[in-house]
């Protein structure tokens, strides 16, 4: 049997593995970029040695370019070291969280045993369950009556004659019509069947209010019983030592979030190194360009080949070899770029599955997974593209089952304080609004 937390932990480690793979490729890409600049600088220096070039030596720029590249390597190395340390801290904290949650489960079991031995608690739980069952049975009838009120009541005020008489207080002590006005109002009342319709509307209004009142009373009664259960549960867990564990868990989770933010900040700082957009790289590239005095390598090589002398020829051959190394390095950079693109896609694919499986419907504490699920093989198939996200989650979901809880947690209501209804049936208030043409 596999706990939901264990299942999620394996999927998280899968994401971490692909994250490490991506960062390793980015590190190699950054180092390759530095090496490319170093080769370009070495080519520039070698060209300056060749007689007849008449290029002014700029040793201060050459030295500064080397120092900038060394500083770049040092800064990146420190950032990666810091990221590794943060990830190690997060891993250690997660292990503590897992152990703490196991302790909390044992404490809950202890609290459950305490409650199971209390007759007053069992009676409270039985009363709640009975009230909840009455609410469940009554709910369909309640909703039917509420729907009937909502459907019929607006019809009464749609007839302007009826609405006028209601506003005038016709048929009540507040009515002030007399003489011709009263005669006309009596005539209008017969036309719109006022007395029967008013009687039905008042019945509907009264029943609607009674429904609302009864619903509120039922809800309050359930909330009161739920509060008693919650108080008993909280007291038992406090007596069993739950509160310190909850405080430790909250502190650990808060620390994990802070460490994850640190990791993201470092990753954001590292990203420009692989993209060759970091400040040090840009600075070093600019210095190398100045050292070459804005001449292209092709132009300088053409001038080299025009200079006489065996020494120059030997230097030229060295330059050609270094250029071959430079081209090989540039091909390696292109290959690393391709690998980084693939690793980024794999990492995002792994994170997509992790984000999906974090949903309480999969990773909630109420679930566990039957033995027989080969999570390793499933992850390999998913990462290889043989399974879509929907297929992978469906496959995992087939092994999901409710985790057996300890009494009385398996009987604790999941919807304490939810509104309910009362037992009633039938209709009321007569038919919908009626009229007559009788005079």
Question: Which features does this protein show?
Answer:
439 residues, 3 strands, 13 helices, disordered C terminus, single chain, three-stranded antiparallel sheet, mainly alpha
Order of helices and strands: EHHHHHHHHHHHEHHE
Average pLDDT level: 80
Q: Tally the helices.
A: 13
The share of residues in extended strands comes to: under 5%
Number of strands: 3
Largest sheet: 3 strands, antiparallel
Q: How far apart are the first and last residues' alpha carbons, in Å?
A: 81 Å
What is the C-alpha radius of gyration, as a whole number of Å? 40 Å
Structural class: mainly alpha
| Stretches with pLDDT under 50, minimum 5 residues | 413-439
Helix content: over 70%
Characterise the protein shown here.
With 439 residues, this protein is mainly α. It is 77% helix and 2% strand. It contains 13 helices and three strands. A three-stranded antiparallel beta sheet has the order 1-2-3. Helix 1 packs parallel to helix 7 (242-275), helix 2 runs antiparallel to helix 8 and helix 12 (375-383) packs antiparallel against helix 13. The radius of gyration is 40 Å and the shape is elongated.
